[in-house]
Structure formats: C-alpha cells, structure tokens
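Internal ticket - ligand job 350, adenosine-5'-triphosphate:
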Amino acid sequence: MMSERQAARGRSERTEKAQWGTGGRVATRSTPHASRSPSFDIVTIGDMCVDLVVDIGDVTPRFGQVEQWIPDYFLEMGGSTCIFACQAAKLGLRVGILGRVGDDVYGNLVLQRLQESGVDTRYVAVRPDLKTGLGIALCRADGDRAILTYGGSLNAVYPADVTDAFLSSGRHFHYGSYYLLTHLLPAAPAILQRAKALGLTTSLDTNWDPSECWNGGLRAALQYVDLFFPNEQEALAVTGASDVEAALRVLMEWVPIVVIKMGARGALVGRKGEHWEVPVEPVAHVVDTIGAGDSFDAGFLAGWLRGLPLLQCAALGNACGRASTGARGGLQGQLTAADVSEAMDVELQK
Ligand SMILES: Nc1ncnc2c1ncn2[C@@H]1O[C@H](COP(=O)(O)OP(=O)(O)OP(=O)(O)O)[C@@H](O)[C@H]1O
Ligand SMILES: [Mg+2]
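stdout (structure tokens):
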C-alpha cells in the first residue's frame, strides 16, 4: 500500500511539475480571465471576533454568585478566516478581507492584528451598531472545553455586501467558516458561482457546523469549489462515510482537489482518483490547536497559487498547521515566508 502511494507520488509530482512548472503562478494558466490583474491573490470573508481563552484548571464554574480563582486567561483575535488571512499574508500573499467589527476595543484588536499581519482591511467596516463577536472558551486541565459564542460582528456580512467589485479584486476566493457566516448561507452557492464566473479559483473550509446538520446548500456550493479543506470529522460528517478514505473517495466525486486535515497525522490529499497521505512530524508539546486548520489552508494555498506540486503544497500546509499548535492562539506560531524558505527550501518571497 505504502509503496504504491510512493510510486504514485513520484508520478504525480513529475506530472504536476511538467504541467505547471515549479515557479509558475496560477494566473499564467490559460483561463478566459487570464488578462485580469486583481489587487489581491486571495480574497476572503471574515468571521470577525476575539477569543477569550480561559484556563480554568480543575475549577468548575458555579452559579449562586460563587467566586473562584483561575490559573490563567488569554485574549486574542479569533475567527477562522481572519486567522487564515493573517497566515496567508505572512507567507507573502496579497490578501483582502471583507467583514464587520464593532466600534470597540475588541474591534480595534481585530483590525490591528489583521493590519500588522499584512492583510488589507479596505473592505472591513467599523459598525457602531454592532458589538465585536466574542468566543469564550473555558478550558479544563483535562483538555475538555466549553465554548460560549456571542455573534455580533462575527456573522454580520450579508449577501449584498459580497459585491462583484470585492470578488473581482482577487484571483482566488477562500470561503471559510461556512456555517458560522449564517446570513450568507442561503447565498453561498451563488456567491461561489459568481466568483468562478468572474475568473477566480475557489476554496472552501466548512469548519464545524454548530447545528451538526451539514446541509446549508453545501453540495450545491461545492460545485463551484476547486479545493475543499475539511478536517477528518468534518469529512465524515459531510459524506456520512465511516472512514476517512471512503470520505475522500466520495468528496473526490464532488471537488477536483480534496485535502483532509488529520491533526497530528498530517493530511490526506486527493485529486483525479489518486490520493496521497502527507504525514507531519507530531508536535511534542501542543499548546493549543486553535486555528491550526486555518493556517494549514493558508500554507497549502500559498504553494498552490504559486503553482507548486500538490505534495509540496500539503507539506507547506502541514508546516503552518504544525507551527500553529506550538504557540498560544491562532496567530503567535504562524510562519513567515522567510521561515518557510529557510526550513523547507521553498521560495515564497515576491
Ligand atoms: N499535534 C500535531 N502535530 C503536528 N501537526 C499538527 C498537530 N495537530 C495539527 N497539526 C497540523 O495542523 C493541521 C490542521 O489540524 P487539524 O486536523 O486539527 O485541523 P482543523 O480541525 O481544521 O483545525 P481548526 O481547529 O483550526 O479548525 C494538520 O493537518 C497538521 O498539519
Ligand atoms: Mg478547521
């Protein structure tokens, strides 16, 4: 089994190199819109919020006005697509994000983190009538978590906000947090269809569906998606398959490139009936896994948008996901283009 995969990997790597060249860019592939010169490599829509991660140790919160000491807490920008956008920008991609923040300190934090990571925020509106979204994660010493979410700005983007001008400012559209951008859900297939018609390539990461229904027009939306990035549980939930390889087979019928993230086991990548396991070196001490999957997506796309072979894209994704687990929150461990050049001999600088 393994040797077959390795042989297939070699074949596929050669085919991809021949097809794309190692230093090429997607824009050079012949598409009807190849003459466009968009401002951004990637445009995305932000589930803009902050995360308050509360380390409660062995303490169980008690009502009845009981006050208890806790060991630690941590406040940082959250939001899967915001974390994704920061990682993509740190890897040298030009990234534009559409979203809303409240006119408050948390909104300032979100804007500051995006901007200092190099993300363009011209499509982010500061809304005095909204509070910035907030996720409160109560983390117990045994690793279990309870999460409380206030929406506010997190899901305040509506279909009419996703204009053609915004979409066509990018050459690739990444749709993340599919189920959390609740007001966009009914329009999601149409938005992706429009992005394709405007000449963009597209990717989608569902992240978790809090309703656990896994509907929301996902099958229709996936018709217009070039790369799909579920994690293992999401791939099983979306397909109803009982194991990850079966899920991959189903997803490959729906989407040209499927990348299933498998935590410490790396990723499973499928295209045109072929698939490859791309392992990662497990992190000895995981600090937290917040945003690992989102940084993985950004790393993978940083390779793909430069025309690198899929296995190299997956290795880049693994490197970014892995680095994210070694530091607190979704931003601190993120790799830069220089880190990647040094560690992986992959040139991502512009
Ligand atoms: N313990 C680990 N050791 C090494 N790499 C890891 C570890 N956990 C995660 N990664 C890397 O991060 C990637 C994404 O992790 P995971 O499979 O948990 O995605 P996810 O569930 O989508 O994450 P998120 O919580 O951000 O949505 C993995 O494919 C792998 O590359
Ligand atoms: Mg995820």
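Auto-summary: DSSP finds eleven helices and 13 strands in the chain. The pocket of magnesium ion (ligand 2) is lined by residues 205, 207, 231, 293 (CB under 6 Å).
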